[in-house]
Specification:
heterodimer, A: about 375 residues, mainly alpha, 2 domains, two-stranded antiparallel ribbon, 14 helices, 4 strands, about 70% helix, globular, B: about 270 residues, six-stranded mixed β-sheet, four-stranded antiparallel β-sheet, 11 helices, disordered N terminus
């Protein structure tokens, strides 16, 4: 018997390639077709898709810990924001003397009457140093937090509440002007990135393509991990942690690994997000943001990787339309959606697909693991 | 990386020193929970290759004893040794598992979302740190070992079924199979036939008799018929209120007046 199986089935590879090509096509339609053409993609739409891809990457990261390892984080917004702030430091430095005060310091520092950058802003004028910070700072925060929490065997809802408290505490910290990250205004008014104007179409398309590449790369990485033996150990943590310990796996090491990896992926999503939306402020760390990420994963289908990506697109697409059409009703709609999915689609959009396919006369779906439970 | 170094010592392979003929020594173990003594100066030793049955009424401390041996509960006083050198009271659950003690829980505990094959694969004795696990590939030799265990626990043909779909008895066997994959020196079985049908119980007795002599085995059980079946001429220990009440062959124990009073007679 041969037990090594490919990363995806041939059909799934095809679907993935088709989606990637379609995503690459969007900027081409944006550039090549005149505004009047029916297939023209507006810059606004392109920016929206770029933003959704960042959300999708965050949802993918969350699925790794929640869907596969059973650790529900209500604080992933923190890692997203830390990634965004780390990249934001570079973008602030890149403004140079083009700020309102014409100073070498960012406006908010001039406003605070600071004469020089605080020590932790050292070297942040180097792009690649900030990219290193994007990975290292959230990674370190997650590692230290996870080490203490997992070592103390904090689990389930207690862990979730602590993650929520952690992001809330950091939000309060970042709201302070003295923290040195722009207080409640955060970072904004970016001008350029690596010497290119941040609002130029070519820069926006480059950022869009970078986001797409990292999203697809992260999906392949996560898929390889969950299909490995390590992936089966992670699911063991979720389903029967005591059994796992007594057969000789240390759950602490595996949880720390996946928790830190997830935080780093989420931070990368934040770092890609900030130049595309042009602002980051402490509200990114508000508890509601982290909870919304959980909703994307739940609606898309946790423990499926692709589901959370779909969920992030579906919920945010709906949100964009809803907040324009009925601005006051969005939170009610989101709540209703969450309740309906919890009641009638326990496995989310993707988890429900096999059941739907079996109902159709031409459908032919093998029983999935989820249904076995 | 620290992920690996933190695990370094637990992967040290089992060199259990059993020169003195015993694989497990419990000496004067007391475990108190808020003044209640779940174990009270319990002294017990298990010889290499022995199949020992431990019986006793509810609350006699059987499961607490298992917890002490596997590192889940720390003794309040007394010492627990695995072979001559492993001080169980100072080791974590994971280290104890690597040293060579496997435990089956009272309620069958398997990975229900994984297939039977994957359950056995996860349990297999190998480097269980993060990085080797990420890059692990099954060799054909390892697949053969899994296949052999599948036959032993009578689950061949079921290897691709999710474990959650197995019957209660099959789950118990799968869990025993997972213990065997770990190649432990000492196997602890907590009520292996609880909730089994008569046929399944008979098959489990057969399985344990096949394992006799190959591993040291401790069986905690309520079912007297089953104990009589597997104890044969071996020693049976009766626990009562956290300490040993009587020890001897099944027929001797059954004739002991104190045992009759606390357990069998009523």
């Amino acid at each position: 018997m041969n037990r090594t199986s490919p990363l995806f089935s041939r059909g799934a590879w095809g679907l993935l390639a088709a989606c990637t090509l379609a995503a690459i096509l969007l900027p081409i339609l944006h550039l090549a077709l005149p505004d009047s053409h029916p297939l023209h993609v507006s810059g606004y739409a392109l920016g929206l898709v770029g933003k959704f891809m960042c959300y999708a990457l965050a949802a993918l990261a969350l699925d790794l810990v929640w869907g596969y390892t059973g650790i529900l984080s209500l604080g992933h917004g923190l890692f997203f924001a830390l990634g965004a702030y780390a990249h934001g430091m570079y973008l602030m430095r890149a403004i140079g003397r083009d700020g309102s005060y014409g100073s070498a310091l960012p406006d908010f520092m001039v406003f605070l009457d600071w004469k020089d950058y605080p020590w932790y802003w050292a070297f942040t004028d180097h792009f690649w140093y900030c990219m290193l910070l994007v990975v290292l700072v959230p990674g370190l925060v997650a590692f230290v937090f996870g080490w203490f929490a997992f070592r103390s065997r904090i689990k389930g809802v207690y862990f979730s509440i602590i993650t929520q408290a952690m992001t809330y505490a950091c939000m309060l910290l970042f709201f302070r002007n003295d923290t040195g990250f722009g207080g409640n205004n955060g970072f904004t008014d970016f001008r350029r990135i690596l010497g290119h104007s941040i609002s130029a179409p070519s820069t926006r398309i480059a950022l869009y393509l970078a986001t797409l590449a990292l999203l697809v790369g992260a999906l392949l990485l996560c898929r390889a991990i969950v299909r490995s033996k390590l992936g089966r150990v992670l699911q063991g943590v979720r389903d029967a942690e005591a059994r796992l310990m007594f057969i000789g796996y240390d759950p602490l090491a595996f949880k720390l690994f996946v928790w830190t990896l997830s935080a780093v992926l989420c931070a990368i999503a934040g770092a890609l997000y900030v130049p595309q939306v042009g602002i980051v402020n402490p509200s990114e760390m508000s508890p509601a943001n982290s909870i919304e990420m959980v909703v994307w994963v739940a609606i898309g289908g946790r423990g499926t990787l692709v589901g959370p990506i779909l969920g992030a697109f579906a919920v945010n697409g709906l949100k964009s339309w809803f907040t324009a059409a009925f601005p006051d009703l969005w939170l009610f709609a989101l709540g209703l959606l969450f309740i309906l999915v919890t009641l009638f689609m326990r496995h989310g959009i993707l988890g429900t697909l096999p059941a739907i396919r079996r109902l159709l006369p031409f459908g032919r779906a093998p029983a999935t693991r989820e249904e076995a439970a | 990386m620290s992920l690996d170094t933190s695990m370094g010592m637990s992967v040290k392979q089992a060199g259990v020193d059993t020169r003195h003929g015993a694989i497990l020594y419990l000496d004067d173990i007391t475990v108190s929970f808020d003044g209640f003594r779940a174990l009270n100066k319990l002294t017990l030793d298990i010889s290499v290759g022995e199949l020992r049955c431990i019986i006793g009424p509810n609350g006699a401390g059987k499961t607490t004893m298992m917890d002490v041996i596997t590192g889940k509960t720390r003794p309040t006083s007394g010492s627990a040794f695995f072979g001559q050198t492993f001080d169980l009271s100072r080791m974590t659950e994971v280290e104890i598992a690597h040293a060579g003690i496997g435990r089956k829980f009272q309620r069958p505990t398997v990975f229900e979302q994984h297939t039977v094959f994957e359950n056995l694969e996860l349990a297999m004795k190998m480097d269980k740190r993060v990085r080797p696990t990420l890059f692990a590939r099954l060799s054909s030799e390892q697949e053969d070992r899994i296949a052999a265990i599948l036959r032993l626990i009578r689950l061949h043909g079921h290897e691709d079924r999710p474990a959650g779909l197995l019957s209660h008895g099959q789950k118990q066997w799968l869990e025993i199979g997972m213990l065997l994959m770990q190649e432990p020196q000492l196997i602890l079985l907590d009520e292996p036939v609880a909730g089994m049908s008569d046929a399944e119980t008979a098959r489990t007795a057969e399985l344990l008799n096949e394992l006799r002599g190959r591993h040291s085995i401790v069986v905690v059980e309520h079912d007297m018929g089953f104990v009589a079946e597997i104890a044969q001429q071996g020693k049976v220990t009766v626990l009562h209120e956290g300490s040993v009440l009587a020890e001897g062959r099944m027929d001797e124990v059954k004739a002991d007046d104190r045992v009759i009073e606390v357990y069998l007679g009523r």
